[in-house]
């Protein structure tokens, strides 16, 4: 057998993919050396490998560890090919990302050096991951020509970011080493690997895929749509690349892109004994990400043929779980704890003006999304200000810090910004009664904002600032247009001359927004601004927000509100909060210039730019009104009167 096919090495042979590659190699007539990590004091159970057909004659198991790259030399000696599958996996972030990445790269390069020294290895196939492609800032269909943006991953810290950084930099390193040293190296990029397994432990990708299949809510915050591939197709693709006469570079390996709609249809038809969520009920309210479709055209054009579709993946995985006595629907409480730990490490951000309508809702959303939050409130020497509506938010006891700061003293924000990866500057002077001259209010607003931006620069950790502007910075532009967008600016001279209702606030917001964008451009600080219109909906702050009061007056035809608004665009507060976070996490808000302002989608004020960037609105006028009225009722506030 060995004389006809030769001996190959598979690193990480006890894992999901590695063990299936071994199974396939033995079936195909290869002799196999595989490596497992050394376990001091006890022996690792490898009977699931040694019991494979052909293993007694064709399989050798050796100890090796990525922390000691030279330990792989014995396993590689005499081999004609190497499948480097072993990789550090640390989704719980027990170690710093830099440590994990260094171990991965050093281990991989050590293995490649052993391949060179062997004088027998003709080709190395490195097992990469879709995470090396999908965080590239592109949308829709992608392929192996894309690379994930490591700087973005390190700044935004999405779920699994450390693993994605490690895999991206390791794949780049092995390809570069191969090119520089004349070693034939190709990489395979599988998406979510699904199907049966021979290892004793339920593989995480199978568990997560089953959660996806059966509508487990804990996973919906992670994926709403994903690409999948059968484990046997992945193993076959590895061997295909080893045997191909002349493969080059990277190859994506993905059979299908799966949506909830397709999953729901399949499960309902095939497995009536399992309760599955339907698209028409609770699934439509669940949030999550929709990954881009990864094309396998290059692999298919090279001659590879996928043998399995979605139905086979689901059926084979469920059947395997049943045969092993494993529950098909996993323990949610354990998984929830694990996800909570991972989400808590998403990074720390700062929200100025956290007791306000918008600021408090942004905090609520950030905590839900797994961020740690510093927020600022104006100094309260007598400690009479009630912030219990913030401290009682889910996750606040562990991940919310409230600090004092005031726009009149910009340096007071430094402590809140220190160590943050992003800042939402929401705080703003509001003086509709004109108790102070406009010039005083505007100066306080600009000085405060620029002081905050300087603190962001000094922090060395802040990657992006999202400034909360106002529609008043756009709509008073002196033009008569039915539809305007963020390319317009309000005319400050006209505002100061006409003194329309709210003119002082409009001047302050317009000049402050211009100042922050100019500062960002001049100082290399990533600054984007969001321009919400009339913000409507529920509220968690104790005081009835002015925009909600006016919107309710408008909704119920109360004349008191008609002096300032006869027709107005509106937006739900949750969409506003989500849009802020969207702009923080977006890999590259459109355009290289700092003067990039994002609008809100409502009649007369277009938010085409925000929508084109990928943001999706969840709420319409009906939800805004319903949520606002319900919130007022719950708080015991009257609805639909002239003076609420």
What features would you describe in this structure?
Residues 8-247, 349-589 form the NAD-dependent epimerase/dehydratase domain. Keywords: NADP, Oxidoreductase. It holds the Pfam family Epimerase. One of its GO terms (molecular function) is oxidoreductase activity, acting on the CH-OH group of donors, NAD or NADP as acceptor. This protein is α/β, with parallel strands linked by helices and 644 residues long. The protein has 2 domains: 2-340, Rossmann fold, CATH 3.40.50.720; 347-634, Rossmann fold, CATH 3.40.50. The chain is built from 25 helices and 19 strands. It has a 7-stranded parallel β-sheet with strand order 3-2-1-4-5-6-9, sandwiched between helices. Helix 7 packs antiparallel against helix 8 (161-181).
């Amino acid at each position: 057998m060995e004389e006809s096919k030769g001996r190959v090495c598979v690193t990480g042979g006890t894992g999901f993919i590695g063990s299936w590659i071994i199974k396939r190699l033995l079936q195909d007539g290869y002799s196999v050396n595989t490596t497992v990590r050394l376990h001091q004091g006890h022996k690792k159970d490898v009977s699931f490998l040694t019991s494979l057909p052909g293993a007694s004659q064709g399989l050798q198991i050796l100890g090796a560890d990525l922390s000691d790259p030279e330990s792989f030399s014995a396993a590689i000696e005499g081999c004609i090919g190497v499948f480097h599958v072993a990789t550090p996996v640390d989704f719980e972030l027990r170690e710093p990302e830099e440590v994990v990445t260094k171990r991965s790269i050093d281990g991989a390069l050590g293995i490649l050096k052993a391949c060179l020294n062997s004088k027998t290895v003709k080709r190395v196939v490195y097992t990469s991951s879709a995470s090396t492609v999908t965080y590239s800032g592109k949308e829709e269909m992608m392929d192996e020509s894309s690379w994930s943006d490591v700087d973005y991953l390190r700044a935004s810290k999405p779920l699994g970011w450390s693993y994605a950084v490690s895999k991206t930099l390791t794949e780049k390193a092995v390809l570069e080493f191969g090119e520089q040293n004349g070693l034939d190296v190709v990489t395979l990029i599988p998406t979510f690997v699904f199907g049966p397994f021979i290892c004793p432990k339920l593989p995480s990708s199978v568990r997560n895929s089953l959660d996806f299949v059966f509508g487990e809510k804990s996973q919906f915050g992670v994926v709403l749509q994903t690409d999948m591939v059968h484990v046997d197709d992945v193993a076959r693709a590895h061997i295909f690349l080893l045997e191909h006469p002349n493969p080059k570079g990277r190859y994506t390996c993905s059979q299908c892109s799966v949506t909830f709609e397709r999953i729901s249809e399949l499960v309902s038809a095939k497995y009536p004994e399992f309760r599955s969520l339907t698209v028409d009920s609770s699934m439509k309210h669940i949030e999550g990400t929709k990954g881009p479709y990864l094309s396998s055209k290059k692999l298919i054009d090279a001659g590879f043929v996928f043998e399995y579709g979605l139905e086979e993946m689901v059926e084979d995985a469920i059947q395997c779980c049943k045969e092993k006595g494993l529950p098909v629907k996993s323990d949610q409480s354990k998984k929830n704890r694990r996800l909570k730990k991972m989400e808590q490490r998403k990074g720390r951000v700062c929200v100025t003006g956290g007791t306000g309508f918008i600021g408090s809702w942004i905090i609520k959303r950030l905590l839900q999304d797994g961020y740690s939050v510093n927020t600022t409130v104006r100094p309260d020497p007598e400690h009479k200000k009630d912030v219990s509506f913030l401290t009682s938010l889910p996750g606040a006891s562990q991940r919310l810090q409230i600090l004092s700061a005031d726009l009149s003293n910009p340096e007071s924000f430094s402590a809140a910004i220190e160590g943050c990866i992003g800042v939402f500057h929401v705080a703003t002077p509001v003086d509709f009664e004109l108790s102070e001259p406009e010039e005083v209010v505007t100066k306080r607003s600009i000085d405060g904002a620029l002081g905050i931006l300087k603190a962001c620069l000094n922090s060395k950790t802040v990657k992006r600032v999202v400034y909360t502007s106002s529609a008043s910075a756009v709509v008073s532009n002196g033009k008569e247009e039915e539809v305007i967008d963020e390319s317009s600016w309000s005319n400050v001279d006209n505002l100061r001359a006409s003194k329309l209702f709210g003119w002082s606030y409009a001047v302050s917001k317009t000049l402050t927004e211009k100042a922050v964008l100019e500062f960002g451009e001049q100082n290399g600080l990533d600054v984007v601004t969001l321009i919400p219109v009339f913000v409507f909906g529920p509220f968690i702050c104790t005081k009835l927000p002015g925009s909600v009061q006016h919107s309710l007056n408008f909704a119920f035809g109360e004349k008191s509100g008609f002096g300032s608004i006869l027709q107005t665009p509106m937006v739900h507060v949750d969409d506003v909060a989500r849009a802020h976070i969207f702009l923080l996490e977006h890999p590259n808000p459109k355009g290289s210039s700092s003067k990039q302002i994002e609008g809100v989608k409502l009649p007369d004020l277009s938010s085409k730019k925000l929508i084109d960037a990928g943001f999706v609105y969840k709420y319409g006028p009906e939800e805004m009104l319903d949520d606002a009225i319900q919130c007022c009722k719950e708080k015991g506030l009257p609805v639909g009167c002239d003076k609420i």
